[in-house]
Amino acid sequence: MNEQLLRDNVESTRERIALAAERSGRSIDDVEVLPITKGHAPEVVLAVARQGFTAIGENRVAEAETKLAALGRLGLRWHMVGHLQRNKAAAAVAAFDVIESVDSIRLGKRLQLEAERSASGGVAILVQVNAGGEGQKSGFASTELVEAVGELRELNRVNVLGLMTMAPLTSDERVLRHTFELARRCLERCRNELAGFHGRVLSMGMSNDFEIAVEEGSTEVRLGTVLLGERPEGL
Ligand SMILES: *Cc1c(COP(=O)(O)O)cnc(C)c1O
């Protein structure tokens, strides 16, 4: 990884986030950049850590385990952003600090069980909402989201920090905006309707749509390509 190029990419991306935040009357301090290192070599995680990032995202348990074995945790928070199968829940609880892709009650219950079994005090999650309403995407429908978050909150080892969504793969700005706005409303509804729920994290926006996501209230943009270039393995 060319560290100068990475530095330049980080800087230009932060400028774009700052402008998007300004357009919507938000502060750039309210938007965290989560570099997504999937498909890149372990050294890339190291380069990202050297830039001062405090968290990274991976989308496969096995790939994260390989990197953790090579690097250790590097003082980073490791986020799982890909679909998680229940039979990988134990490994995921061990490898990750935050699991952003909780898309079923059954998975939440399995994470609770694995957190109880392991020494870890608990597991922090985001609940995935299929805000674009796409048939093939994981996540709860927006209409079932509040109830799902309510159920997941009853699991005492599972700490719901907020929501995650992936927008449809489109350049249609109206579709993207609508999707992100719906996710934000879902989080607001959770806060209004679920007593004692104060989750604030809204993980949305990727390389092709992060500025719109920031304008619509994202607190965490998950960025791979725009920071790190194309993934060598084409993942
Ligand atoms: C790969 C991935 C990203 C980053 O994608 P880019 O388009 O490279 O920024 C973000 N979120 C999830 C869930 C991903 O799988």
Could you describe the 3D structure shown?
- With 235 residues, this protein is α/β, with parallel strands linked by helices.
- The chain has one domain (3-228): Alpha-Beta Barrel (TIM Barrel).
- The chain has nine helices and eight strands.
- The strands form two sheets. Strands 2-3-4-5-6-7 form a six-stranded parallel β-sheet.
- It is globular and about 45 Å long.
The ordered string of helix (H) and strand (E) elements is HEHEHEHEHEHEHEHEH
Give the distinct bound molecules: pyridoxal-5'-phosphate
Mean pLDDT over all positions = 96
- The assigned structural class equals alpha/beta
Strand content: 15-25%
In short:
The protein is α/β, with parallel strands linked by helices and 235 residues long. It has 9 helices and 8 strands.
Relevant terms:
binds pyridoxal-5'-phosphate; TIM Barrel; alpha/beta; two-stranded parallel ribbon
Secondary structure layout:
Layout: H1 3-23, E1 32-35, H2 42-50, E2 55-58, H3 61-71, E3 77-80, H4 89-95, E4 98-102, H5 105-117, E5 123-128, H6 145-153, E6 158-164, H7 173-193, E7 201-203, H8 210-215, E8 220-223, H9 225-228
Parallel strand pairs: 1-8, 2-3, 3-4, 4-5, 5-6, 6-7
Helix pairs in contact: 2-3, 6-7
The structure holds pyridoxal-5'-phosphate.
